[in-house]
Design brief:
The protein is α+β, with helices and mostly antiparallel strands. The chain has two domains: about 180 residues, BirA Bifunctional Protein, domain 2; about 90 residues, Alpha-Beta Plaits, CATH 3.30.70.380. About 25% of the residues lie in helices and about 30% in strands. It is built from seven helices and 15 strands. It has a seven-stranded mixed β-sheet, with helices on both faces. A four-stranded antiparallel β-sheet has the order 13-14-12-15, with helices on one face. It is elongated, with a radius of gyration of 23 Å.
Length: about 290
C-alpha cells in the first residue's frame, strides 16, 4: 500500500523511550556505542519518528514507512533470554499529504482514518478486529485507538501527540501504528460465499443514542445478531445538533438484504429491520429517529 520498509537501530535515546512509550526505566546498555544509543527500545515509534525527522530536513514532504523488528522489555517469566522479553512488532508511519498533489482532488493532510483503512485492509476487514478508545503516551488523546482481536489488545494507531510534533520539529502530525507481529502469522483462510442471482433490498436505519456511545460496539452487535437475509450493514451518517435531544446523536446505517434462492418479500424485509431495531434498543438504549 505504498509504504517503504526501513531498518533502524535497536539502541535508542532514553528520551525516545520516555516520550513514545512512557518508559522511565528502559533497559540500559553497559557499554553503548554512542551516548544517544544508551538503551534498548521497547517501541518502534521512536525510530520511525527519527526517520521522519531526517526526511523533513531534506525537504521530503510525503513520508510513508514501516519497520518489522524486535522490541525489548523486562520479564521474569520463562523467556529464551532470562529476564527479558523480545517480541517482534510491525510499526508504520504516514506523514504529509494523503495523496500526491494532483489536478483532480484537493490536497489534504493524512488523518487517522487513512491509516485505520490501511490496517483494516491488512486484516482483510475481519469482523474479529475492533478499534476502541484508549490512552497512549505517544498519541493524541482524541485521535487514537487500540486494536483488539477476540478481546486481546494487539496494537494501537493514532496521530502523534502535538507536544512530540513540536519537540521533534516534524512540521505536522504524522499518523503512526504498532502491532504485534504474531497477529499476522495465523490467518484464517477465505471462505466461499455464494453470490445471489436475486435482487437486493436496501433500507436506511437512523438510531438515536447517547453522544458518548461508540459506534464500534453498536455496529458489531447489529452485524453479529442480524438475521440471515442481511448481507451488509454500514454506517453512512452521523448527525449531532438541531432536532435532537441534548446529549444525543443520530447514527444512520445502510442495511442490505438479499436471499440466495428467491426474491425477498416485504414482510421479511420489515421483520429483519425490526429485529435490528430491537437489538439496538435492548443493548444500547437506542431509539428510532422520527
Amino acid at each position: 500500500r505504498g509504504y517503504f520498509e526501513v531498518v533502524t537501530m535497536s539502541f535508542v535515546e532514553a528520551a525516545w523511550e520516555a516520550d513514545f512509550a512512557g518508559n522511565a526505566a528502559p533497559i540500559q546498555l553497559a557499554n553503548p556505542i554512542a551516548s544517544q544509543m544508551g538503551v534498548m527500545r521497547s517501541t518502534l515509534i521512536g525510530g520511525l519518528v527519527g526517520v521522519l525527522a531526517a526526511n523533513r530536513k531534506r525537504q521530503t514532504e510525503r513520508v510513508r514507512v514501516f519497520e518489522i523488528g524486535r522490541v525489548f522489555s523486562r520479564d521474569t517469566s520463562g523467556q529464551p533470554v532470562t529476564g527479558f522479553r523480545q517480541p517482534q512488532r510491525v510499526g508504520g508511519l504516514w506523514a504529509g499529504p494523503a495523496l500526491p498533489e494532483q489536478w483532480g482532488a484537493a490536497t489534504r493532510p493524512v488523518d487517522f482514518y487513512d491509516v485505520k483503512g490501511d490496517l483494516e485492509a491488512l486484516f482483510g476487514a475481519s469482523p474479529r478486529l475492533t478499534f476502541t478508545k484508549a490512552a497512549h503516551p505517544a498519541l493524541h488523546p482524541g485521535r487514537s485507538a487500540q486494536l483488539v482481536i477476540d478481546g486481546n489488545v494487539v496494537g494501537f494507531v493514532g496521530e502523534l501527540h502535538p507536544k512530540w510534533v513540536q519537540k521533534y520539529e516534524l512540521g505536522g502530525a504524522p499518523v503512526v501504528f504498532e502491532l504485534e507481529l504474531d497477529t499476522f502469522l495465523v490467518t484464517a483462510m477465505p471462505a466461499y460465499r455464494e453470490v445471489s442471482r436475486f435482487p437486493s433490498v436496501t433500507r436506511d436505519l437512523a438510531l438515536v443514542v447517547g453522544r458518548d456511545q461508540p459506534v464500534e460496539p453498536l455496529l458489531g452487535a447489529l452485524i453479529s445478531r442480524a438475521p440471515a437475509i442481511v448481507s451488509d450493514i454500514r454506517l453512512f451518517d452521523l448527525y449531532q445538533g438541531k432536532g435532537l435531544p441534548e446529549g444525543q446523536k443520530s447514527l444512520a446505517f445502510r442495511i442490505v438484504m438479499q436471499h440466495t434462492e428467491r426474491t425477498l418479500e416485504d414482510a421479511e424485509v420489515e421483520a429483519g429491520v425490526a429485529e435490528l431495531i430491537e437489538v439496538a434498543r435492548k443493548e444500547f438504549g437506542a431509539v428510532l429517529r422520527g
